[in-house]
Amino acid sequence: MANFEIPDDLLYTPEDEWARGDGDRFHVGITDYAQQQLGDIVFVDLPEVGSEVTQGQVFGVIESVKAVSDLYAPVSGQVVEVNEELADRPELVNEDCYGDGWIIVIDTRGEDPSDSLLDAAAYLKHVDERSE
Amino acid sequence: MSGPPPPARASNAGNGFSYEEPLLFERSRPGRTGYSLAELDVPEVDPAQVLPEGSVRAELPGLPELSEVDVVRHFTRLSTWNAAVDLGLYPLGSCTMKYNPKLNEKVARLPGFASAHPLQPPALLQGFLELAHQLEGALAEVSGMDRVSLQPAAGAQGELAGIMMIRAYHEHRGERRHKVLIPESAHGTNPASAALNGYQVIPIASGDDGVLHPDAVAAVMSDDVAALMITNPNTLGLFEEHIARIAEIVHARGGLVYGDGANLNALLGIARPGDLGIDVMHFNLHKTFSTPHGGGGPGAGPVGVKNVLAPHLPVPVIRRLEGSEGQGYGLDYDFPLSIGRLHGNFGNVGMFVRAFAYLRSLGPEGLRRCAEMAVLNANYLLARLRGRFHVPFDRPVMHECVLSDRSLAGTGVTTLDVAKRLIDYGYHPPTVYFPLIVHGALMIEPTESEGLEGLDRFADALLAVGEEAQRDPELVKRAPHHTRRSRLDETRAARRPILRWQPER
Amino acid sequence: MRYIPHTQAEIEQMLDAIGAPSVDAIFATVPAKFRLQRPLQIPRAASEQEVQAELAALAGRNACLETHDWFLGAGTYPHFIPSAIDALVSRAEFMTSYTPYQPEISQGTLQAVFEWQTMVCGLTGLDVSNASLYDGASAAAEAVLMAMRATRRSRVVVSGALHPHYREVVRTYLSGLEAEWVEAGRAEDGRTQDLAALLNDETACVLLQQPNFLGAVEDVRAAAALAHAHGARLAVVVTEALSLALLEAPGSLGADIACGEAQSFGVPMGIGGPHLGFLAAREELLRQLPGRLVGETVDSEGRRGFVLTLSTREQHIRRERATSNICTNQGLCLLMATIYLSLLGPRGLRRLAETNLAKAQYARRRVQGTPGLGLPLPAPTFNEFAVRVPDSGPAALGRALDQGIVGGLDLAAEAPELGPAVLVCTTELASREAIDRLVAALAGRPR
């Protein structure tokens, strides 16, 4: 089975998104497992800054050469930033999915979502189950 | 951009002559012409005198200047870069790449077919109308449907028509249904056609034996389901043995059954979709009925229906004139419940002529022979391949068989690599990664056009690649080695799309 | 049967390898109750000689360019087709090849499509073109769907001067979706009227034909400005592709999408099909484009090559969220058109368009100078125009037919407000002498 990274300090969704909270602002992206499954990313369809997203709902779409995947919001709130770099360099998601390959930033406006997200151990278990 | 390849030169690299050839626009030379026009026999007109100011264009960019010789050489050279059915086996699953008869090409070029106009008076189109009417009847007989429309221009458009007719049927009965049931093994056009009609797709899984089971259908069937779409034989090459019972379940709750006719070749003269509970289906003339694939088209996707859906057929409908109407055939537009038009004219008439000639050439025994030999060939290949390759559903197949990539485990070699290495052996690869329900699927349809020695050579090649995957995986992973282009960077093509040539600034 | 190689000996050998006792036994998975118990009731097989004779007899009962002088256009155009085209497309490697999913062995097809896409962009003045659609009518439908997706709106304003069959096809495509259909009427001069009054901020798309069904040249620039003022897209539909060589490119006039029928570029009239739909758009609409796209790339050795690309828009990947359900393009017809455009080049195509215009202007003057005939629509035209006749369309066309002329299309159904009239198309195939005979026949006068 291929190796993939699951940083301990992040939270995860069952749909393979990660979230990193800094106060109310959460950076969101897709996991190393997800980017490996998708293959070379060619396009990311980003939401508009200012739009509202709801946890568990689709906020965008990510495309590789051979596949398309919906992006699900790990937390609810307002989109306050999108990674414009991805328009010219979608490969950032492959190269540095937890860093420069971030996708959007959501402001949760005080809501604490950590109860409804998976920690690293739980996400690893979830991935293992699916790979079997 | 890497720039144009080096100028044309012959290469005897063991593969005969093979030329490099730049783009038309790179070959272009100012002043060259490849056309001839008669001298004008009416007075010259200055466009600016008769057309509004600002409406006449000054330049025509994007067109090359070439002599006829340049053009002929250009495209002849390009043609030598393609695989083709006339060169060898093309074992693409669910594509039915059978031989394209040359007689069909000859008759399609008769002036009465090639140079006639769709809007000329029906009295001046009787030859075509009779041919079309007879073709409709033949397709109905072959499939067990009651009525046929030839109008849809491709299988996908035939599907669109079929689902539209189903929607019209329900609406006419005052019902609004929102769902369509589609097996997970279905071709991608099936859910796309359903979505284009505003339906929600409910996927159904096949059983462990590879076919759909009545209880799985019953579990999701409701009064909100407009239709079930089914391919038979399915994309695993298996006959859907429960189809009649499944159709009953759907019909009992007021739904209809759509049959994807892509795999009809396996059933010709053996069984008929209409006898199995199918209410509407499409045909692929470019698969089952031998019209050529043309590098991506044109095809033709006629649609057949049971009488219950006949009021919803596309217009115009071709029919025999009666009594005082006179002799011959006419066009009928008086169908208030019709779904309307899908094509600007009658559909791909050139394909009707070819399919008609094919049916006349084969007759009932010939058609049945197609099915028999197609199924024999697929089972023979399966017998030769099953030892080395993993067969996910190990049962007798119909016209195609599917292998998985399980036998490649541990080698690092993928189905894609196997496909590319087969090219080195002189074969267009089978369909890969479809159906989605088989991991790393390799879907092989030899058709009845292939003889025994051809099948053996193909099996030998695929077995050799399987063996190479174990012994020398890098050889397979870097294939193809003998083509004029090696693997192309599809990621780059998608990330930085260059979709036309532009002159360098 | 000469298309099926198997001998009895080979069949037995294969049955042996499978372990089946007979050919019938390999159909054991088809339950007996489903098996057809009788032969198919279709005509018995005929020899090649017989089939050829039968088809020739059927073909002989259709009028065609070889038997009549031709002035009927209305969406399918009579043009001369250079011989090199059929010779080239008949090559087995073009005709009997499949969709170029394996690019290493399909570079011939892929490069030709890339060349086509380039030419369509040049002709339409737009940024991206796809690898063709079934026909002009479905292209118009796909253009509308594109505009609806891009704007997320569902109100469509369609010119009443769009080809009636195209209007029907677009309606059919929209019938399964929530869409509002608004039709703009025709003005007295033959052009589309009232666009300003019909557009609003819910409008996704304006659909305008150029030249329109009655032959009139529309004001595309004005339509584009109106559409954009409301955030809508303008899609220009072209049925006579040759007009693109003469009229200003739709993209240069502000159109967002140009689409239609390219049959005039070397594709036989063929009783209406197969023809060749084309679709081009501005860069911003790229991801909404339906159908196949060919892109340039390099192989592992750095050599230039071509591949199908941006496939994630399409049905085989996106399935129910695809931009369209389309799978096939019109490959071989696209090749015919690409070869045609290469042979003619920019000057040949322009010269041909001017020839068509000159023939039409001559015919128009003859009509104007003939008692009983008239030109009911003052708008400028290209190679097609309405002619008023003294009695009725069918009678006038009947007189033409007696002279061995297919004279045009009766306009009673589509444009009754013109009175008895026919739509006449004059291309490079129409000699001066044939035009004179047509005019005399329509007027009911002796030659």
List the helices and strands and how they pair.
The complex is a heterotrimer of chains A (132), B (505) and C (447).
Chain A: E1 11-12, E2 17-22, E3 25-30, H1 32-38, E4 41-45, E5 52-53, E6 58-64, E7 68-72, E8 77-82, H2 85-88, H3 92-95, E9 104-107, H4 120-131
Antiparallel strand pairs in A: 1-2, 2-3, 3-9, 4-6, 5-8, 6-7, 8-9
Chain B: H1 24-27, H2 47-50, H3 68-79, H4 102-108, H5 111-114, H6 126-143, E1 147-149, H7 155-172, E2 179-183, H8 189-196, E3 200-204, H9 214-220, E4 225-231, H10 243-252, E5 256-260, E6 280-282, E7 303-305, E8 317-320, E9 329-332, H11 349-385, E10 401-403, H12 415-424, E11 431-432, E12 442-444, H13 452-471, H14 473-477, H15 490-495
Parallel strand pairs in B: 2-3, 2-4, 4-5, 5-6
Antiparallel strand pairs in B: 1-7, 6-7, 8-9, 10-12, 11-12
Helix pairs in contact in B: 4-11, 6-11, 7-8, 11-13
Chain C: H1 8-18, H2 48-59, E1 69-70, H3 83-89, H4 92-95, H5 107-124, E2 128-129, H6 136-151, E3 155-159, H7 164-174, E4 180-184, H8 195-198, E5 203-209, H9 220-229, E6 233-238, E7 257-261, E8 277-281, E9 294-298, E10 304-308, H10 315-318, H11 331-368, E11 384-388, H12 393-402, E12 405-406, E13 409-410, E14 421-425, H13 432-443
Parallel strand pairs in C: 1-12, 3-4, 3-5, 5-6, 6-7
Antiparallel strand pairs in C: 2-8, 7-8, 9-10, 11-14, 13-14
Helix pairs in contact in C: 3-11, 5-11, 6-7, 11-13, 12-13
Characterize the structure shown.
The complex is a heterotrimer of chains A (132), B (505) and C (447). With 132 residues, chain A is of the alpha+beta class. Chain A has a domain at 13-103: Beta Barrel (OB fold (Dihydrolipoamide Acetyltransferase, E2P)). Chain A has 4 helices and 9 strands. In chain A, the strands form 2 sheets. Chain A has a 6-stranded antiparallel beta sheet. Chain A is globular. The mean pLDDT of chain A is 92. Chain B is an alpha/beta fold. Chain B has 3 domains: 1-54 and 63-81, no CATH class; 103-358, 3-Layer(aba) Sandwich (Aspartate Aminotransferase, domain 2), CATH 3.40.640; 370-491, Aspartate Aminotransferase, domain 1, CATH 3.90.1150.10. Chain B has 15 helices and 12 strands. Chain B has helices at residues 24-27, 47-50, 68-79, 102-108, 111-114, 126-143, 155-172, 189-196, 214-220, 243-252, 349-385, 415-424, 452-471, 473-477, 490-495, and strands at 147-149, 179-183, 200-204, 225-231, 256-260, 280-282, 303-305, 317-320, 329-332, 401-403, 431-432, 442-444. In chain B, helix 4 (102-108) packs antiparallel against helix 11 (349-385), helix 7 packs across helix 8 and helix 11 crosses helix 13 (452-471). The radius of gyration of chain B is 26 Å and the shape is globular. Chain B starts with 23 loop residues before the first helix and ends in a 10-residue tail after the last helix. The model of chain B is unreliable at 5-14 (pLDDT under 50). Chain C has helices at residues 8-18, 48-59, 83-89, 92-95, 107-124, 136-151, 164-174, 195-198, 220-229, 315-318, 331-368, 393-402, 432-443; strands at residues 69-70, 128-129, 155-159, 180-184, 203-209, 233-238, 257-261, 277-281, 294-298, 304-308, 384-388, 405-406, 409-410, 421-425. The radius of gyration of chain C is 25 Å and the shape is globular. The chains are: A alpha+beta (132), B alpha/beta (505), C alpha/beta (447). Chains in contact: A-B, A-C, B-C. Chains B and C meet through helix 3, helix 4, helix 5, helix 6 and helix 7 of B and helix 1, helix 2, helix 3, helix 4 and helix 5 of C.
